[in-house]
Automatic annotation (TrEMBL), chain A:
Annotated gene: ASK11_4
Family: Belongs to the SKP1 family.
Lineage, top ranks: Eukaryota, Viridiplantae, Streptophyta, Embryophyta, Tracheophyta
Protein name, as recorded: SKP1-like protein
Keywords: Ubl conjugation pathway
Domain SKP1 component POZ, residue spans: 11-68
Biased composition (Acidic residues): 152-163
Organism encoding this protein: Nicotiana attenuata (Coyote tobacco)
InterPro entries: SKP1 (IPR016897), SKP1-like (IPR001232), SKP1-like_dim_sf (IPR036296), SKP1/BTB/POZ_sf (IPR011333), Skp1_comp_dimer (IPR016072), Skp1_comp_POZ (IPR016073)
Subunit structure, as described in the record: Part of a SCF (SKP1-cullin-F-box) protein ligase complex.
Pathway membership: Protein modification; protein ubiquitination
Span of domain SKP1 component dimerisation: 107-152
TrEMBL record, chain B:
InterPro entries assigned: F-box-assoc_dom_typ3 (IPR013187), F-box-assoc_interact_dom (IPR017451), F-box-like_dom_sf (IPR036047), F-box_dom (IPR001810)
Domain of life of the native organism: Eukaryota
Name of the protein in its database record: F-box protein
Domain (F-box): residue spans on this chain: 9-54
Amino acid sequence: MASSTTGEKKILTLKGGDNEEFILEESLVLQSELLKNMVKEERVSSIPLPSIKSKTLVKIIEYLKKHAELTPSNKEEFKNFEKEFVNVVLEELLDITVAVNYLKINGLLEFCCQAVADRIKDKSVEAVRKIFRIESDFTPEEESEFRKETPEAFEGDLDDTTN
Amino acid sequence: MASTSMELSSNIMALPSEVLIDIFSRLSVKHVHQLQTVSNQWLRTISSPHFRRLYNMKSMTRPRALVVEESDQTYSRPSGIGPLSRIITISTIDLAGDNKIQKEFSFKIVGREYSFCVSSNLIIFNHKVCNPTTREIIDLPNYSNYQSVSFDVGYIPYTNTYKIVRLFGTDRGANYNCNYASKILEFGFETLTLTDGGPIPSSWRSMTHREQFSVKVDATCVDGVLYCLVRKGDIKEDRIVSMEIENEEFLTISCPQEDNQKLFENGQLTDLNGKLCLAYYSKELSRMCIFLLKDPKNQTWMKEYDIHLPRMGDWVRIVGYSNGDILIQGKTPLLYNIKEKRGRKLRKSNKNYTRLYYDRCFTLDRSRLRMQRRESSPIRNFHRKVQNVR
């Protein structure tokens, strides 16, 4: 993972939830406000991130690398990468969003929020509940009142499980 | 349960509320309203004033066009007996997308009274206010006996409130008509504050402040300040009376001067990307000249654009700014691209008002709110209600 000419570059270790270690250049993690503060203030060389799955961390590091390589000439390529980046199963997208919010990587957070919003867009209440596995905690009376008030909110898109 | 945190993380319920709010704020206001019924958590989040304010702030960057069409007046019954009525049709145009016009709903106004005003997201007519987002139509309290000149609406984003400002002539003489007077008259103001969720106050708040002028030419609200362009006899004496919507402080601003008198025939005001815009249109010259108030304190104007507008007809209005385009209403609404200096026409329609429109979480009266119905809702008739009011 480390390139051969990084003699002077600082190296940092991130420890994922399942104790897997990721070694990367310190400059990369500076895109994360949280890690930037940790590195600057405490001069640490290893940061444990127990709440983030390794699988999620791999994705985020992949993004950080791509983003660091972003130049005006490969903008299009980066856009395609971003599109592919969020083209994952919903659970994974939510994992990434939660982690990115925790790490405070602002640009990516915006992008993740939009990606989650895109999956909710135009979906009925029932479909949203199904996709996000949310159980209604309203009383049966409230529930039937809602259905009476806005029947269209409960119509259509019921079989949408593409997420 | 050692791995609880990891299992939880793959659930949308685990998203911190700030992230959930961010996600919701990217959806249409209609959809967001519907999603309140997903769960108690979503209901709490979406109905919180914090979310509603944030949503409204964000939507300032994505205006749509609101097109309000007014039908010709017809008699309620074919025999020609009975009060005249007209049908108001509300549509929106997605300016960022395909510019397609989408019909939202329509309603009928019955009666002789003819006040009609479309301003900053709200429509005011016949002692009523309509919020096109929620399709609420609610009676306004009675106002003073003085003759109305106009109703204008200001919006304060950080408190999510509207204020209706009613301008009236203070003379109660028998032959008095303040709308067409050429001499200098006295005018007064009264206001009504509408808070999110209501209720609508039971009376208007009258103000002691008076202004002297002969005609009110136009008005607009920019960044919490209402600006009225008024004429004092001669065109050269046009000036702008401004009122801070929140603390109701008044100020007078002089208009920019230019040599070409022909350009000063048709003054109009609008909010152009957060700045006060004073535009002059000359049909004879097919030109619109646009000034922006760069610094409200020092009253410095800048001539920003000079647009060539051929074949636009008599009645041309600058509407506002959206994504690099200036929306102009004429016989046909037009999106004028500032960079390319080129206009592209939108769908043509009769007798309409086009305004910029923002998706806002705002209800006039929560207790009466029924969440929005689909487009197919039948035309609603307010005949009986209007009669009751009188």
